[in-house]
Amino acid sequence: MAVELVTGNHAAGYALSAAGEANRNARGAVCGIYPITPQTEIVEYVASFPFTKGEVVPVESEHSAMGVSIGGSLAGARSFTASSSNGLAYMVENIMVAGFYRLPIVMVAVNRTLGPPWNIWADQGDTLMLRDFPWIQLYCQDNQEVLDTTLLAFRLAEDRRILLPVVVCMDAFIVSHTQMETELPPQDRVDRYLPPLDLPHRLRSEHPVTLGGLVWPNEAMFHRAEIDEAMDRVPEVFAECQSAFSKVFGRTVDSAIETYETGDAESVLIASGTIAITAREVVRRRREAGEKVGLVKIKLFRPFPEAQLRAACRSAARLGVLDRNYAAGAGGIFWQDTRATFQGSATTALIQGYLTGVGGGDVTPALIDAVLDDLMARSEASRPQWMGLEPPKEDIA
Fold first, then answer.
1. pTM score, two decimals?
2. Residues 270, 244: one domain?
3. End of a domain among 249, 275, 297?
4. Are 69 and 95 in contact (CB under 8 A)?
5. Contact at 8 Å (CB) between 20 and 198?
6. Which of the chain's termini has less CB crowding within 10 Å, N or C?
7. CATH number of the domain within which 74 lies
8. How far apart are CA 103 and CA 81, in angstroms?
9. 283-318 pLDDT, tens per residue?
10. What is the DSSP string of 134-156?
11. Model confidence over 50-83: pLDDT tens digits?
12. Contact 185/17 with Cβ under 8 angstroms?
């Protein structure tokens, strides 16, 4: 496989395009596109790709971009799109529809701060506002993981035990616009990994049906329960997709959670995205100094990997959750789910939330050292702590 120096956006565009081309002997590919910083390069790449059998449709808004992808998926095409921040907010109605229609659409989202005030830097609040929708959410730390996870997302979404859309997330600019060496798999490998899509509930002229019609309360509740059962199956199917990925591409793709030095750790940091890279280096250095610290990187946010997280942190007395997001009045969102995971379990670990890099601020090794110092000194948890918070340099008129 070719190794090239590419940005995260390039890696995402390559993966979406190769996945769409892999469906050329079935019903092809469909992508609705609309630009928004910092994901525009993704849809530019897809728009220039010479699909054998596919349609890339430029539209007038993000809402319509997801609408086009929904229409393509209902017709049985392998469908996908990309967006970010307020574009996702404008797309919300159709994001919900895609999930409840059980359509295996894959969307790449470049995590950017929602505004106002307007801000184009990394913040996970945009995709995490979708956390209650029936979408699988996967968070990536670097360019290679973006490419590999996007390919895996199609296989996961299209598995008949799942049939749910997937959003693959990366930090704005830190990943999206930063180049790193990335293995770009040839089309024949992608073809082997992604079999032709045969969507069981696609629209067929010979058997017309109505989708999204009015139903009685019990039918709606039964529908939600079926989605819940599919979500419960995600970790097992994800592991199968991961194993198949290794066989086809000769390398591994990160698991739902990745652990580092957690076996005997007394204090464990929990992070996602690029923060996990910095945190891993801090943990390595402090381990060498004799401190029993560890790290859990969470990739799979929805469904939240509760059993795996509890197992990874079984020795820890303190857990520190680093959130690059903020839910007003409720702290960090990964912190909220971590607390819920350990509620009622045998583990009595102190669980402390830290708000880090919210709005795109730098999360440096020094900042993570400060988090660990605070965590290790604690005898009880407090409300989530803002780390690296500085007052504005000047008032804005």
1. 0.96
2. no
3. 249
4. no
5. no
6. C
7. 3.40.50.970
8. 13
9. 999 999 999 999 999 999 999 999 999 999 999 999
10. S-EEEE-SSHHHHHHHHHHHHHH
11. 999 999 999 999 999 999 999 999 999 999 999 9
12. no
